[in-house]
Specification:
- Helices cover 50% and strands 6% of the residues.
- By secondary structure, the protein is mostly helical.
- The chain has one domain.
- Strand 1 and strand 2 form a beta hairpin.
Length: 109
């Protein structure tokens, strides 16, 4: 459904934002399942102090409760999407979870 202000989709009105033209927002990757999983995984690495923040500043002190919550979020996502992912997506979430869990265990010791 198209309106004067923009396109309505799933209850949201989408509009072209002239302020965003020519900005870094145009160079952001398309969001699909893989980029979503990798984004969450990046948060987990940041909370473990193993990755810089999005602005590129050095890694923070580990916050293990937040890192654990991030891992649990990915576990929930894996459980809720089981049977609905293609082979590459399923392998990605399994691999990311394995790596995050191993990093977490190393830090927890």
């Amino acid at each position: 459904m198209t309106t004067e202000e923009g396109k309505t989709e799933r209850g949201f009105t989408l509009r072209d934002d002239p302020a965003r033209s020519g900005t870094a927002a145009e160079s952001l990757p398309h969001i699909d399942f893989s980029t979503f999983v990798l984004s969450i995984a990046s948060s987990g690495l940041y909370h473990m102090g193993l990755a810089p923040d999005p602005s590129g500043q050095s890694a923070s002190e580990p916050n293990l409760p937040l890192a654990r919550q991030t891992i649990e979020t990915l576990e929930m996502l894996e459980e809720k999407t089981r049977g609905n992912l293609d082979a590459d997506e399923a392998k990605l979430i399994q691999t990311v979870l394995y790596e995050l869990r191993m990093d977490f265990v190393k830090l927890e010791r």
